[in-house]
Write a structure and sequence with these properties.
By secondary structure, the chain is an alpha+beta fold. 48% of the residues lie in helices and 17% in strands.
């Protein structure tokens, strides 16, 4: 029996090559897309699951709700919060803190700039990274020690042993709550006591060099760690007791914050600490998919994961629709075969098994082709995603079994309805003369075509809007010139050295200006301060950015009124003992204060800062700038004031176009003249801006490809359906031509027939796409509008593709001589 089914199926595939090709091609492409999506989703969900013993480990995250500003969701946490949770919450078994800091790491005369991870001494006992040399329990029992990765061991020590070797680490500022004296150099010589495997791509962690926070090279002082409740610095992790409820722990966190953090003292806010600052626990293994800012490695997105899963399901559905559509369209072609089988004794159940078997066989053949396509295209897919995704069929037999099961399921779903239709034919009706001319379930075929194109049009609209939003964000008017700016991180220099270096950079003929600042665009390091406006009750929160005198000219920021800050005006420089300081504000701040840009100049407001010698400082507005997007398109412009603090560690240098090598050489030469013992750390600002869109563009390209494939599969099915339909209507068209119909009339008739399902599909796809895309765009502060052209363009493109798909068949039948169609009538 099985052999008979197999021979019949193969004979049927061979006899109807076009339909077999369309079905197998559609299913194989659909399955290949599904496999690619499965690999992407599996990779996104695999983050940190390879680290053992992290079932009860949680990342502590912070939400700041500053009055008058949108909430800020951060992956980092204030230093003292972790220690307070460990000391006061019995559910917390252990806690660790990690802070990344750029340091100079030297081996003899060789210097390297590294992102050094400064961690709690028990870090490797809690986060059990794979240690290949050294005793895990003995790591960081001594302060001046280090754990490095295999790559770092090769870089510093070659092929020799790393354990017991010495490295010089440090050269950075000590952070204190009252850092009035500027930078204090912190250096230490550490001994390597452990080597871990290089961290794979699927982890939230990063780094090649780890030192304990008990080392002298730790840039944060004990005082800062105990009192900085309003400053989220680094990442914190807590391990809960077995069986502890994280929800119950989070319910205790507001009271803990209120006991330790008083916003009135720290920021002059008349609200509870738990209102301004909220802590949240995210499972360690799910932190990669958190939407919070400030993660060590780029975040994934649950929305993207769910979106890709939905696209994979939709593509498979379109492929299944193709199969069902063509199988029901060809039902009457096989009516006589089925009737003869019934006449000789075949039961309906046997026929159902036969046709389901054919469907499953076709799905398995499609799976073989899909696996071959995936193997060929996987390197290209890796490059598009920007990360390695491996697939070894023999080593990953559970995945292979799952794919075979999925292919069988797809075959059963695609063939179920055709099998029911084909097996229910009555022999007498099917064997009657001309019965084969019936067309079967035309309503079902039309419905399936509508569904295929509704999905394709909806995905097409989404692709257009996604790419339009990315393009809009990349090209939005930021209000500043981001191109041609090199940022130098100078954390290890004293204030006098910073100013001297900035003046040297500003005067060099190979450069076009330099300025100090506490923050640069797109980095998210600005501070918030509480101010009082004369004549207004209460206080409000405003952002503060320290900028040097030439900051606005270096970035091409337009001054609306007044002047910029200058070193020639004593009150323009913020000093620890200053009671009166001049500042510049942006237009948004002027509007918040109730002034126009012109009337704001000369007005004053006050800032209370308990951490300074002078607790209350009067700020006088000497200039107003145009609004500019300091954080790019990620957040709306917020009220901000700009002051000048000569201790600021960032130097922005504008370089001339066409002179990049000479400019970089000049920057390096000047740096080494002032800081010969420190490795230079610099980057192009526009590269930092572009990195914001890297993940979105990668995912957008893949999304666009999947949309194109969905449309291709839909058109493949339409092509087969058009071939069948025009073939079945040959006599009708011959009669029409015999009565005087022109070729153009016949072509238009057939095109209209296939246009109706596409037009109906537009009516379904447009409102659904509008609903979801409107909600998606609302997550962007600066966004494109849902222009009707996106919808009309996708609908017109689908209609044009449908016409292009069926035009060849329509022309062939319309041009045929009616004599050949009617000779047997």
């Amino acid at each position: 029996m099985f052999r008979n089914y197999l021979v019949t199926a193969l004979r049927n595939f061979s006899r109807h090559r076009l339909y077999s090709f369309i079905n197998i091609a559609g299913l194989s492409v659909g399955l290949a897309c599904a496999i690619f999506i499965i690999l992407f989703v599996r990779d996104e969900l695999s983050y940190d699951k390879w680290i053992p013993g992290t079932e009860n480990l949680y990342r502590v995250e912070t939400t700041f709700r500053i009055p008058g500003q949108p909430p800020n969701f951060w992956a980092v946490v204030p230093f003292p919060a972790i220690d307070a949770m460990l000391a006061e919450l019995p559910e917390v078994k252990a806690a660790v803190h990690l802070h990344r800091y750029r340091m100079t790491v030297a081996r003899g005369e060789r210097q390297f700039l590294e992102q050094v991870d400064v961690v709690s001494p028990n870090f490797f006992q809690i986060v059990r990274l794979p240690l290949i040399a050294g005793d895990r329990d003995a790591q960081f029992t001594q302060p001046e020690t280090a754990v490095i990765t295999e790559s770092a061991a090769r870089k510093y020590f070659g092929t020799g042993p790393a354990i017991g070797q010495m490295l010089k680490v440090g050269g950075q500022c000590e952070w204190t709550t009252q850092n009035a004296s500027g930078c204090i150099m912190r250096e230490a010589t550490v001994m390597v006591t452990g080597v871990i495997r290089d961290l794979p791509h699927n982890t939230q962690l990063a780094g090649d060099v780890f030192i304990p926070n008990t080392s002298a090279a730790d840039p944060f002082s004990p005082e800062f760690k105990k009192s900085s409740w309003f400053n989220a610095s680094g990442w914190g992790y807590v391990e809960l007791q077995s069986g502890a409820d994280p929800g119950a722990v989070m319910a205790k966190l507001p009271a803990l914050i209120d006991r330790h953090f008083d916003p009135r003292k720290s920021a002059g806010l008349t609200v509870k600490g738990s209102v301004v600052e909220q802590l949240h626990l995210t499972p360690f293994r799910e932190a990669h998919l958190s939407d919070r800012q400030g993660s060590m490695t780029p975040n994934g997105s649950r929305t993207t994961v769910y979106g890709f899963i939905a696209i994979g399901v939709l593509i498979l559905l379109i492929a299944c629709f193709n199969f069902t559509n063509l199988a029901t369209a060809r039902a009457m072609v096989r009516a006589r075969e089925i009737s003869l089988r019934k006449v000789v004794g075949a039961r309906r159940g046997q026929l159902v098994i036969q046709f389901l078997g054919e469907s499953v066989l076709m799905a398995l053949l499609s799976l073989i082709l899909a696996l071959a396509l995936v193997k060929i295209l996987l390197p290209l897919y890796d490059r598009m995603l920007g990360k390695p995704i491996q697939l070894h069929y023999l080593n990953e037999w559970p995945l292979l079994i799952a794919l075979v099961g999925a292919a069988v399921l797809v075959g059963l779903l695609a063939g179920f309805y055709p099998a029911l239709v084909l097996s229910r034919f009555r022999p007498a009706s099917a064997l009657r003369a001309n019965a084969a001319g019936q067309s079967g379930s035309g309503f079902l075929r039309g419905l399936l075509v509508v569904m295929q194109f509704a999905v394709s049009i909806g995905l097409g609209i989404a692709a257009l809007v996604v790419f339009a939003q990315i393009s809009f964000a990349r090209n939005v008017d930021l209000g500043l010139n981001k191109n041609g700016v090199v940022v130098v991180l100078a954390n290890g220099l004293a204030p006098s050295t910073l100013q001297s270096m900035t003046h040297a950079l500003d005067a060099d003929p190979a450069l076009k200006g330099a300025a100090l600042s506490s923050d640069v665009p797109f980095q998210g390091n600005a501070n918030n301060n509480t101010i009082e406006i004369p004549g207004r009750p209460g206080t409000s929160m405003i952002r503060e950015v320290d900028t040097g005198p030439d900051f606005f000219s270096v970035y091409g920021i337009h001054l609306l009124s007044g002047r910029a800050l200058s070193e020639s005006h004593g009150q323009d420089i913020w000093r620890p003992d200053s009671a009166d300081v001049n500042v510049v504000i942006n237009r948004a701040a002027a509007e918040r204060f109730g002034y126009s840009p012109q009337t704001a100049v000369g007005k004053t407001f006050y800032q209370d800062d308990p951490d300074r010698k002078i607790k209350r400082v009067r700020l006088t507005i000497v200039g107003v700038t145009a609004d500019f997007m300091f954080e790019g398109d990620r957040e709306q412009v917020v009220p901000t004031f700009y002051s000048y603090d000569p201790r600021d560690p960032l130097i922005s240098v504008r370089i001339p176009p066409g002179g990049v090598p000479q400019a970089l050489s000049a920057i390096d030469r000047i740096w080494h003249g002032f800081a010969p013992s420190l490795a230079i750390n610099r980057f192009f600002l526009n590269e930092s801006f572009e990195r914001q869109f890297l993940a979105a563009e990668q995912e957008g390209r893949i999304f666009g490809i999947f949309v194109g494939i969905a449309i291709f599969i839909a058109c493949l099915g339409l092509f087969g359906l058009a071939a069948f339909s025009t073939e079945r209507r040959t006599r009708e068209i011959g009669i029409r031509k015999a009565f005087g119909a022109r070729t153009r009339d016949i072509v238009l008739l057939l095109l209209w027939q296939f246009s109706i399902p596409v037009l109906v599909a537009n009516l379904i796809a447009w409102p659904v796409a509008y609903y979801y895309l409107r909600h998606w765009l609302e997550t962007y502060p600066y966004r494109v509008s849902l222009d009707p052209l996106y919808f009309a363009g996708a609908g017109a493109a689908a209609l044009a593709i449908a016409w292009a798909t069926v035009i060849a068949h329509a022309l062939h039948v319309a041009k045929a001589n009616p004599v050949h169609a009617l000779r047997y009538e």
